[in-house]
Amino acid sequence: MTNKLKYFIANWKMYGDLKSIKSLNKVIKFAKSFKNTSFKMVYCPPFTLMHPLSIKLKKTKISLGAQNCHTSSEYGAFTGSVNAKMIKNLGAKFVILGHSENRIAGETDNIIKKKILSAVKENLIVIFCIGETNLQKRQKKTFQVLRKQILSCLKGIKKNTKIIVAYEPVWSIGTGNIPKNSDIDKNINFIKKILKKNINFKNPKVLYGGSVSSKNIRIIDKVKSIDGYLIGGASQNEKKLIDIVKKTYN
Ligand code: PEP
Hints:
Layout: E1 6-11, H1 24-33, E2 39-44, H2 50-56, E3 62-66, H3 84-89, E4 94-97, H4 100-104, H5 109-121, E5 125-130, H6 134-138, H7 142-154, E6 163-167, H8 181-199, E7 206-209, H9 217-220, E8 228-231, H10 238-249
Parallel strand pairs: 1-2, 1-8, 2-3, 3-4, 4-5, 5-6, 6-7, 7-8
Helix pairs in contact: 1-10, 5-7, 7-8
Bound molecules: phosphoenolpyruvate.
């Protein structure tokens, strides 16, 4: 059984309604009773469910996170947007930024950097997503892409800023396709090297994300460089999510 702290970040994407909140009961009970305390679970629901979840997760071992935030942490005339201050005000501690689903919708490295700075200003822990597309992988540009994403979004950021990187190959998200363990390990070690060398992070944490399930977790978790998981589809089912955590530890 490992004692290394591992993160399990549940990204509900644009799923869930008030009824879905019930599914947290089992997970909360599980988190309370689970013997191995070296895990950190974070729920990132859509904005519409953040308030009810903040109430539900109070006094539990599970934290709350958001799936995005505006570039400005100030209040302002930005219809449809939510800023880091508002997220913090709900009791959330985390925010996912740079997710490939948002990059595909037009979010640039420049926008992501501004979002990171606004989240950091509000003391939120940023889960910063990076990863290569299928084409970039085939063109053997993975290192180049990861390096550019890190430098463009994190260069100049203060040394001990609370940022966790999520390595998410775009071609793996929601597809059921998983990289070979040797590739995950190679890419995560590369990311850690850049974070140490170019961003001055002392002890960088890097998660893996992309089609993690209760069926493949035992295989993926053999990669020792992984510090946790960003889980999309499987996190919407309480049994699958609990299974993923259990199988990570035994
Ligand atoms: C994600 O949303 O970041 C993700 C990894 O999704 P999935 O687990 O469904 O591939």
